[in-house]
């Protein structure tokens, strides 16, 4: 190595070391989503949103909900199905946002209740577990969601759906199915408290304690066969 190359190499190493030091000190290496996950989230906090969330929310603020509407409300489990093609009733509105939590749902609930919809089908909670929120927080938020709907849109029929298991071989270990079971137990108690139906389909997706791989490709989200089970379970509640 020539003297000039040696000097250039040393200078580059010094500059790189300095840059790393600055980035570490300013937390620039921290994953943005992780930062958001660990923010203190309560009714007074301002939560940073990814672009997908902002896009969906601003769309929902513009689109109208009417008293004839059935609103499918929740996270990506709601988002990824074509509900309007599954049921012969109209209109069916998809208000799912990928990655949403009970905290996020509380903040956007007015865009739903303002329209006084006929029916709300609700599934949310898996992202609360994945993001490390305490179960008590999630259930408290869920209770507030139900109470808010009942207060602001008293003629709306609410149908709760249990949170589904995951397949840890495909999805990893951000969620353990024992957590899902405990959350569903709490949701069942809330359904009884509010005197609303809960469509418990959790066990229909289980195989050896995991989300059956025939119903998913990523260990979390459902494929067409999986949604067929959910749709069939919902059908009696959608015909009324």
Can you walk me through this structure?
By secondary structure, the chain is of the alpha/beta class. It has one domain: Rossmann fold (3-Layer(aba) Sandwich). It is 50% helix and 11% strand. It has twelve helices and seven strands. It has helices spanning 3-25, 32-37, 51-62, 76-79, 83-86, 102-108, 110-113, 126-130, 135-152, 168-171, 177-194, 224-238, and strands spanning 70-74, 92-96, 119-123, 157-161, 198-199, 206-207, 210-211. It has a five-stranded parallel sheet. Strands 6-7 form a two-stranded antiparallel sheet. A hairpin with a 2-residue loop joins β6 and β7. α6 (102-108) runs parallel beside α9 and α9 (135-152) runs parallel beside α11 (177-194). The longest helix is centred in the first third of the chain and has 23 residues, at 3-25.
Spatial sequence of strands, sheet with the most strands: 2-1-3-4-5
Average pLDDT, all residues: 86
How many beta strands in the DSSP annotation?
7
CATH level 4 superfamily: SGNH hydrolase
The tally of helices reads 12
- The third-level CATH topology is Rossmann fold
Regarding quaternary structure, what we see is single chain
Q: Write down the CATH class.
A: Alpha Beta
Name the poorly predicted regions: 22-48
Name the helicity range.
40-55%
CATH architecture: 3-Layer(aba) Sandwich
Q: How far is the first residue's CA from the last residue's CA?
A: 81 Å
SS-based class: alpha/beta
Gross geometry? globular
Which radius of gyration do the C-alpha atoms yield?
22 Å
Beta fraction: 5-15%
**Helix-strand string:** HHHEHHEHHEHHEHHEEEH
How many domain regions? Answer: 1
Largest sheet: 5 strands, parallel
């Amino acid at each position: 190595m020539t003297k000039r190359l040696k000097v250039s190499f040393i200078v580059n190493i010094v500059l790189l070391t300095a840059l790393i030091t600055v980035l570490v000190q300013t937390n620039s290496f921290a994953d943005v989503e992780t930062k958001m996950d660990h923010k203190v989230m309560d009714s007074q906090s301002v939560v940073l949103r990814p672009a997908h969330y902002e896009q969906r929310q601003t769309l929902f603020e513009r689109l109208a909900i009417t008293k004839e509407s059935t609103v499918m409300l929740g996270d990506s489990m709601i988002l990824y199905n074509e509900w309007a093609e599954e049921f012969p009733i109209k209109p069916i509105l998809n208000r799912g946002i990928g990655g949403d939590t009970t905290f996020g749902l509380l903040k956007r609930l007015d865009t739903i209740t303002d329209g006084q919809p006929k029916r709300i089908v609700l599934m949310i909670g898996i992202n609360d577990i994945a993001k490390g929120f305490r179960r008590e927080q999630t259930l408290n938020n869920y209770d507030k969601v139900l109470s808010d709907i009942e207060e602001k849109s008293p003629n709306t029929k609410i149908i709760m759906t249990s949170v589904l298991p995951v397949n840890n071989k495909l999805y990893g270990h951000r969620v353990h199915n024992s957590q899902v079971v405990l959350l569903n137990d709490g949701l069942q108690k809330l359904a009884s408290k509010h005197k609303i139906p809960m469509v418990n389909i959790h066990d229909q997706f289980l195989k050896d304690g995991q989300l059956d791989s025939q119903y998913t490709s990523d260990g979390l989200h459902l494929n067409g066969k999986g949604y067929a089970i959910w749709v069939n379970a919902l059908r009696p509640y959608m015909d009324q």
